[in-house]
Design goal:
Blueprint lengths: L1 E6 L20 E5 L5 E4 L4 H11 L6 E5 L5 H4 L14 E7 L6 H7 L16 E7 L2 E5 L2 E7 L7 E7 L2 E6 L7 H4 L7 H9 L5 E5 L4 H4 L10 H10 L4 E5 L7 H17 L5 E4 L5 E3 L29 E5 L3 H13 L3 E4 L3 H11 L3 E5 L7 H11 L7 E5 L4 H7 L3 E4 L4 H16 L11 H10 L9 H14 L3 E7 L3 E8 L5 E3 L4 H8 L3 E3 L12 H4 L6 E8 L5 E9 L9 H20 L1
Parallel strand pairs: 3-4, 4-5, 5-6, 10-11, 11-12, 12-13, 15-16, 15-17, 17-18, 18-19
Antiparallel strand pairs: 1-2, 1-14, 2-3, 7-8, 8-9, 9-10, 20-21, 20-25, 21-22, 23-24, 24-25
Helix pairs in contact: 9-13, 10-11, 11-12, 15-18
Amino acid sequence: MHVRFWGTRGSIPTPGPGTARYGGNTSCIEVRSSRGTLVIIDSGTGIYALGRALMASGAKGLRGHILISHTHWDHIQGFPFFGPLFDAGNEWHIYGPKGLDQSLRETLAGQMQHTYFPITPDQFGATIRYHDLLEGNFEIGDIKVATQYLNHPALTLGYRLTADGASVAYCCDHEPYSRGLGSGLGEIAGQDLRHAEFMNGADLVIHDAQYTAAEYESKVGWGHSSGEYVVGLARHASVKRVALTHHDPARDDASIDRIIEGLRADVRAAGSVLEVGAATEGEIVELKPSQARPSEPPVAQFQATTSLEPALPERSVLLNISNSSTAAALSEAIRAEGICPVFFSNIEDARKLIAKDRPSLALLEHDGTHIDGVMLCREIRQTEDDESLPVVIVAAQDDAGAGDAAGVSDWLIKPFSSSYARTKIRAWVLRTACHWIRAAIPDDEEQRIASLHGLNILDTASEERFDRVTRLATALFDVPMAMISLVDSNRQWFKSCLGVKSKETSRDEAFCAHVVYHREPMIIPDALQDARFADNPLVTNDPRIRFYAGYPLILDNGSCIGTLCLLDTRPRTLVGTELQRLHDLADITLQEIRRLAS
């Protein structure tokens, strides 16, 4: 992998003689795989020069991908000045975390309103597609991308890119979860340990280190790390090389030199072989394949591009907060996210609510004397043996050791801003809310849709020859529901459906869309135990699918247009020759479709 730094400064651009060496442009990184896949991380002012370089190369039909860590000004202010966005024939995919109130597209467009900028996004000539991201995994060509929420006052994603036998992790902006670690004190545990695991074994880690440990004490809550914290994590995670970035705007080149020399001395004294340096504008790093296979970060294997809008329906957050002003502030933050706050006073009430409502998060106050949230967390863990319910302790200071022993997921340290609380709440709720993966789009999608529409079967009336198949299916397999599902561009439509009232559903919700993508039978014995479907609306609401078996319907030209599928409200599977019987019924269905088209 080829990595180039185009912007390394934090907060505000600081061009001038004092910053000429390490650079004055704000965050922007270019990554290329050996096959030429182009990924740009962040679009601070550094992206302007990158855009000019791409256009000067004379390449036509540029195709690239821009990963936005978050939408604070210094990470997006170069976006309107990125020249390749204005050239027709170019194609750009823009990825980033959905903001608290707006989509990624709306947020980026906000800085191009008439009041601030003379050109609107409508004047971009390139084809631009926007993708709101969650914590999880996805692929960009030959590059595997893992995402993980960082600790910042805005919803922020760290990115780990793996290709060509090497990996690079980008974590900007991020603050230690345990505030003692920012000052160089304490053990790596809890969410800080999880953060270290995200960068485990990486060939290069590009990490925010705006402050020193001494400076951090007066910058708590600002959302940035100290160099000492980053180096400690990198050593723990067996990282090969660290490039410290997001240089403070008040820091000149000589100051950065002194910080780096101090950190290198600490590394040598510890007997570590970790390479430590400061990210330098214009620097190029070629990452050669590791002899060992690159380690994968322990991120939940959810599709990071899963649609966000259905992810928070009827979600609730449990609260045990005695301080009235803190309770009011948290309640307001939760409601602002479209989630329902539910207060409880004792462990018995908590257990009833957990069993009944499957809450996404619990916020517990702790002061060590009047209210013991850590003990309450321990009691909740005795209810939730699998520790599936995240528990965040609200306190004046954290106690990582006691928290880990009790099963605490995270800490919300007082005082906190409304935006910081909302960001932390949203990140934890999204982690638990999105056990639902939307199927990928097949490579032959254009031909597949054309073949389906060419049959002239969509939205036609019910026919006995198809209804006979679904009746036979329910009888043969002893299931209450069977369907002939045809997967269109944005929906699945049922030519025949027995036991289901609806004639169509969203494609995002469709189990059958997964069969269409993989072009092979799919059996789900229990949807509630499958990360792809556990929170799918067709599982959590009517028809409450638990068992699914789908067989692909593939036309003679190779296009997979849908499935014949079986559904049940109880877990089960297919045994013996049952899969062959489903195959036979799918063949009968295809014969009838061919007759319909002839």
